[in-house]
């Protein structure tokens, strides 16, 4: 049977799957459930400097080809999040699953303040959400849209947690002219890893009323429709930053989707909306399908297919006769 364990920074994760921030990141029991289902790392829901109620309903919709949501960064605030993170860490550490705290803020320096608060819980990593697409009216243009702004936020967070040694992940946006340029800027500013990508801004309109369906009017697209965009972004970031660890996130609902994401250049693979589409067993199903694919292609380790799309094109036949690029 193929080996799913993989290296991510200084961690050896039991599988390359990472619970993405959002759907299951709101309670300790859900974070542990994701870990027990097969995630190698789990991400808590983003927290900010103060509690937020988020946007009123309707705030999430299945529009037929994916989800669109404008939850609005609902969270209990960083100080309350510390207790959740501590409790989760105590449950996750014995089973070797990494805990990722996720943060957001307003002014650049406030990111450092929030990072310092959540660092009290000693999460294994801190993910910095500089790319949420559905709070524009409150926070202005996402920092992920400008390399200088993205680098500035990265610098504040790194300074705030430097003494703790907690690695920093920067979460990038897809709707930028050059995601590789943004990636290089935050890596130069000290980012230890990248999460690629956040949701894509979009809108769904009800033809009968002539109005946007979401209360916030616009929101972020996730699910299957996002996968080709996410693959391209991961591919571009890997080309721009060959050595940086990447959590490839966007539209992964099957084991084959995970294979494609790893081939595009991801080190690990984020899973979120799949839980909506395939239910609570989504993570274990993806793990099983990923293992089955590797076994069918006689590939010993999941690490052997990482970055496959960047290698010289050579072909081998699958058991069904279809050509695939050789992993090595």
Description:
This protein has 328 residues and is α/β, with parallel strands linked by helices. The protein has a single domain (6-325), classed as Alpha-Beta Barrel (TIM Barrel). It contains ten helices and 18 strands. Strands 3-4-7-8-9-10-15-16 form an eight-stranded parallel barrel, surrounded by seven helices. α8 links the parallel β15 and β16. The longest helix has 15 residues, at 78-92.
Summarize the structure.
With 328 residues, the protein is of the alpha/beta class.
Please tally the β strands and state the result.
18
Largest beta sheet: strand ordering: 3-4-7-8-9-10-15-16
Give the biggest beta sheet: 8 strands, parallel, barrel
Mean pLDDT: 93
Structural class, judged by helices and strands?
alpha/beta
- Kindly give the count of domains: 1
Counted by DSSP, the helix tally is: 10
Beta-strand content: 15-25%
Globular, elongated, flat, extended or rod-shaped: what is the shape? globular
Query: Which series of helices and strands comes N to C?
Result: EEEHEEEHEHEHHEHEEEEEHEHEHHEE
Question: CATH homologous superfamily name?
Answer: Aldolase class I
| CATH fold type | TIM Barrel
User: What is the rounded Rg?
Assistant: 19 Å
CATH top-level class: Alpha Beta
Low-confidence segments, ≥5 residues, pLDDT <50?
none
What is the percent of helical residues? 25-40%
| Terminal residue distance | 18 Å
Write the CATH architecture name.
Answer: Alpha-Beta Barrel
Catalytic activity: (S)-dihydroorotate + A = orotate + AH2
GO biological process, one term: 'de novo' UMP biosynthetic process
Protein name: Dihydroorotate dehydrogenase
Family: Belongs to the dihydroorotate dehydrogenase family. Type 1 subfamily.
